[in-house]
């Protein structure tokens, strides 16, 4: 019966690796959508900072306003426990987020502060925009460095 | 003892002697350091390009990249390495080192005590540097703040804990010739110097063989991440599609062409490398694209 035991063991393993709960997947997809919207606005802000497109005060200000408001979206339902990369294949969010929620939150607050600073200067010319975009990017990187899996 | 026994003993002794000879740590010729005077101001650029702080700064979130107290851990198949304190503290750092000792360490992987360093310290890359640049680096690093944090001993299993065996490793892998050769433009050559001798991109972006030597035939084509999940991305080969503009802009700002932001070890690399002149980042970009044509 050793063979049967192997089979049932395999079946058990499959059952344990069952798909994540639907509501958890909704949260994962929603927060990924949030990051996609960050990227959509960074294409303007970073694009101008990198010289991929000409500086345009109105476009820069709009994108900076968006970043300000997007980072004020309440996060409390976006990060349910158990939605880390060890449980869900589609996410790169490390389990360490939930082990260090205070630090994770502090890093998010740093992003909020950076978007506020950016919003204040985005329309004041390229020389004002570039360091503010860089400072905001640094807050993104600080979190990715610790809490995001390498792709 | 019969003649054959005596012969075997003689041969065995000779083999041990040869082994002892080829594994002995050898520094730079003494005359190299003697004729050089370091310029601390010029050394800052070498410090940024060489990425010293990426590994040797403290591990706390708000660590000062100029306070080189060490402590970062590097998990590898050979064991765990801990970045040592290389601040100018005379007891726990390198404050008591002479310029010649510093140059032996950086360019030959030999400690002031005459022992081999492990190649987690990328002296195989720095060996290609202009000695004047390393003398400048020495002068610059003496101006940084001292810290009395003791260095932590590496945690390695047998036989990797025998430093003398690194003499064999060096004989196999320490090659001071450029990897990317041929008819390079001036810009590509500048980039090659920055990338191969100082920034040591290949140390992470090139796969290693079973003994930990870089596979120069697969230069910059990506590698498993030794201390974590995922892969260190390819920056050469078919799957790498960035332009020179993309590479240079990324090194400067940390934004990828799709406006993702670097994380992981690369965030620390960019924090330093991004402070170089834009023309130098452009040169690195030109070199990386050239390396991809090999």
List key phrases describing it.
heterodimer, A: 151 residues, mainly alpha, Four Helix Bundle (Hemerythrin (Met), subunit A), elongated, disordered N terminus, B: 294 residues, Cytochrome Bc1 Complex, Chain D, domain 2, three-stranded antiparallel β-sheet, two-stranded antiparallel ribbon, 43% helix
CATH class of chain A: Mainly Alpha
What's the pLDDT, averaged over the residues of chain B?
92
Mean pLDDT of chain A: 88
- Sketch the topology of chain A as an H/E string, one letter per element: HHHHHH
- Using the CA coordinates, give the radius of gyration of chain A: 20 Å
Number of strands of chain A: 0
Morphology call of chain B: globular
Structural class of chain A: mainly alpha
| Contiguous uncertain segments of 5+ residues of chain B | none
Terminus-to-terminus distance of chain A: 42 Å
Instruction: Characterize the main sheet of chain B.
Output: 3 strands, antiparallel
Oligomer: heterodimer
Q: Say how many strands of chain B there are.
A: 5
The value of Rg of chain B in angstroms is 20 Å
Work out the helix count of chain B. Answer: 13
Helix-strand topology string of chain B: HHHHEEHHHEHHHEEHHH
Helix content of chain B: 40-55%
Distance separating the two termini of chain B: 59 Å
Helix content of chain A: 55-70%
Shape of chain A: elongated
Description:
The complex is a heterodimer of chains A (about 150) and B (about 290). Chain A is mainly α. Chain A contains six helices and no strands. In chain A, helix 2 (about 20-50) packs antiparallel against helix 3 (about 55-70) and helix 5 runs antiparallel to helix 6 (about 125-145). Chain A starts with a helix and ends with a helix. The model of chain A is unreliable at about 1-15 (pLDDT under 50). With about 290 residues, chain B is mostly helical. Chain B folds into two domains: about 5-175, no CATH class; about 185-290, Cytochrome Bc1 Complex, Chain D, domain 2 (Orthogonal Bundle), CATH 1.10.760. Chain B is built from 13 helices and five strands. Chain B has a three-stranded antiparallel beta sheet, with no helix packed on it. In chain B, helix 3 packs across helix 7 and helix 9 (about 185-200) crosses helix 13 (about 280-290). The interface between A and B is medium-sized, with 26 and 25 residues.
């Amino acid at each position: 019966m050793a063979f049967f035991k192997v089979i049932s063991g395999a079946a058990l393993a499959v059952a344990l690796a069952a798909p994540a709960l639907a509501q958890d997947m909704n949260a994962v997809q929603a927060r990924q959508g949030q990051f996609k919207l960050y990227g959509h606005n960074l294409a303007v802000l970073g694009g101008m900072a990198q010289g991929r497109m000409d500086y345009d005060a109105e476009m820069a200000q709009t994108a900076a306003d968006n970043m300000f408001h997007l980072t004020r979206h309440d996060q409390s339902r976006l990060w349910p426990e158990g939605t880390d990369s060890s449980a869900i294949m589609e996410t790169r969010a490390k389990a360490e987020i939930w082990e260090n929620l205070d630090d994770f939150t502090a890093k998010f607050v740093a992003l909020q502060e950076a978007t506020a600073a950016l919003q204040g200067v985005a329309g004041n010319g390229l020389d004002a925009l570039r360091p503010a975009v860089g400072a905001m990017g640094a807050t993104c990187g600080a979190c990715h460095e610790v809490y995001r899996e390498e792709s | 003892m019969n003649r054959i026994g005596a012969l075997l003993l003689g041969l065995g002794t000779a083999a041990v002697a040869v082994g002892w000879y080829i594994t002995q740590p050898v520094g730079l010729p003494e005359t190299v350091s003697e004729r050089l005077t370091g310029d601390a101001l010029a050394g800052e650029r070498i410090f940024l390009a060489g990425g010293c702080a990426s590994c040797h700064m403290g591990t706390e979130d708000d660590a000062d990249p100029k306070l080189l107290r060490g402590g970062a851990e590097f998990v590898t198949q050979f064991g765990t390495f801990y970045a040592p304190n290389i601040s100018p503290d005379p007891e726990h750092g390198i404050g008591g080192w002479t310029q010649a000792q510093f140059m032996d360490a950086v360019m030959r992987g030999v400690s002031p005590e005459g022992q081999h360093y492990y190649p987690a310290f990328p002296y195989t890359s720095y060996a290609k540097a202009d000695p004047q640049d390393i003398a400048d680096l020495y002068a610059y690093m003496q101006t940084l703040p001292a810290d009395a944090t003791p260095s932590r001993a590496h945690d390695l299993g047998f036989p990797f804990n025998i430093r003398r065996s690194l003499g064999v490793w060096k004989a196999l892998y320490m090659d001071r010739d450029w990897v990317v050769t041929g008819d390079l433009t001036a810009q590509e050559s500048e980039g090659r110097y920055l990338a191969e001798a100082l920034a040591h991109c290949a140390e992470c972006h090139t796969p290693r063989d079973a003994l930990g030597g870089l596979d120069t035939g697969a230069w910059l084509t990506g590698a498993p991440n030794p201390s974590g999940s995922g892969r260190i991305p390819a920056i050469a080969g078919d799957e790498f599609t960035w332009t020179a503009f993309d590479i240079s802009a990324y090194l400067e700002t940390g934004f990828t062409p799709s406006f993702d932001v670097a994380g992981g070890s690369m965030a620390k690399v960019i924090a330093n490398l991004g402070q170089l002149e834009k023309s130098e980042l452009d040169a690195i970009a030109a070199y990386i694209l050239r390396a991809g044509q090999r």
